[in-house]
Amino acid sequence: MGRQGGRVVGRAEAERRGPAAARILARFLPALLICAGVCYDLLTPAPFTAVPFFTAAPLIAAPLSSLRTTLLTGLAALLATYAVHARFAVLPDADAVTEILTVITVSALAAGINRIVRLGDQRLATAREVAEAAQRAVLPEPAERIGSFEIAARYEAAQEGTFVGGDLYAVQDTPYGVRLVVGDVRGKGMGAVAAVAVVIGAFREAAEQEATLEAVAGRLERALAREGVRRGGIDAHEGFTTAVLAELPHGDGTLRLVNRGHPPPLLLHGDGEVCPVRAPEAALPLGMGELGTWPDRAAEHAFPSGATLLLHTDGLSEARDAHGRFYDPQRRLTGRTAIAPGALVARLAAEVRRHTGGGMTDDMALLAVRRP
Question: What is the pTM of this model?
Answer without folding.
Answer: 0.68
